[in-house]
Amino acid sequence: MTVLALLFGWLILKFNHKPIKPASRKEVFICILTNVINTAITYAGFWLWKHGYILLSYTTSWRIGFDFLVIFMLMDLAMFLFHYAIHRSILYKTIHKFHHHYADPIPIDLFVLHPLETVGFGCLWLALLLLFNFNIYAVFIYLVVNVFFGIMGHLGIEPVPASIRRIIPFKYLGTSSFHHQHHLNINHNFGFYTNIWDKIFRTYKG
């Protein structure tokens, strides 16, 4: 998934004639470490499912779309609150500032996180799966969409024309420029998939 995500980001930059900055050894190392941690979190989720703590449905019905929207919005809110809390506490200097070292990000920086932050996001994900019984196909779609938004937010460019970004539903989504603005100004745009929570809590900057 990581290789496909980075290839997707590289293709977008290539298509937009953006010079592609090579990743440093440190970025590559942390990317690999993040994948190891995410693999451990995935295995933990598998163990919880195997022992009946996580329940999933396997039907192909309208619930796929509904469950995806619920996961999408709940995770967006949970990650917004987690992200906001980190920025407003001592955790920013000790953990999250590591990610903000890259003010002009490249796709691999999606995976360049402090290990404790990676564990934190993973725990949010597992907690949601423990609380609700979701459709497995909705879970799979969400995981793909999650990586898509992550790569788009770390392109360092905005590939979506402004005319499209002004119409519904794109005007409420977390575009590349939306998250890039957060890397440039750490006091704004804490959302991931949407800008809704930033607008509600008055941390939005267009």
Structure description:
Strands 1-2 form a two-stranded parallel sheet. The longest helix is centred in the N-terminal third of the chain and has 26 residues, at 25-50. It is mostly helical and 206 residues long. It has helices at residues 2-15, 25-50, 63-87, 91-94, 115-131, 136-153, 162-165, 176-184, 196-200, and strands at residues 56-57, 134-135. The protein has nine helices and two strands; from the N terminus they run H-H-E-H-H-H-E-H-H-H-H. The protein is globular. Helix 2 (25-50) packs parallel to helix 5 (115-131). It has one domain (2-18, 50-200). The chain starts with a helix and ends in a 6-residue tail after the last helix.
Give a concise summary.
This protein is mostly helical. It has helices at residues 2-15, 25-50, 63-87, 91-94, 115-131, 136-153, 162-165, 176-184, 196-200, and strands at residues 56-57, 134-135. The chain has a two-stranded parallel sheet with strand order 1-2.
Core attributes:
206 residues; 2% strand; 59% helix; mainly alpha
The general outline is globular
Share in β-strands: under 5%
Number of strands: 2
Q: Count up the helices.
A: 9
Strand order of the largest sheet: 1-2
What is the gyration radius calculated from CA atoms?
17 Å
Number of domains: 1
The ordered string of helix (H) and strand (E) elements is: HHEHHHEHHHH
Roughly what is the average pLDDT, rounded to an integer?
A: 88
Termini separation comes to 30 Å
Uncertain runs = none
- Share of residues in helices: 55-70%
Largest sheet: 2 strands, parallel
Assembly state here? single chain
Output the structural class: mainly alpha
